[in-house]
Amino acid sequence: MFSQINANAAFHLANQDEDMVTVLGKFRVDGYLHDSVKLRVQEIHRHLLPDMPYSPEELLGADYWSSLSDIGQRLVTLCLENLAQQGVMQLGVACCDHCGDLRFYID
What we know:
With 107 residues, the protein is of the alpha+beta class. The chain contains five helices and four strands, in the order αββααααββ. The strands form two sheets. Strands 1-2 form a two-stranded antiparallel ribbon. A two-stranded antiparallel sheet has the order 3-4.
């Protein structure tokens, strides 16, 4: 029975890994979360002015952002950075000169 439990746990963990996406070449996030972030940026994209800095909260929506835990906010920020690195929707990333936080912009 113990080996059956271990086999079930291993199967469950293996299936969970299938849903993970590697971002920035060194972090793993849930694929659904990554897709959700991408969709949210696509929805707001046409309403953004080029070369203006946007916080993750502004891009994803204040309600969504505030519903996330600290780790959730970190993970969606990694997703945004990954999208910028991939050149999705001409999304760029830079550090704010004043506070050092990441800001995103449309080229």
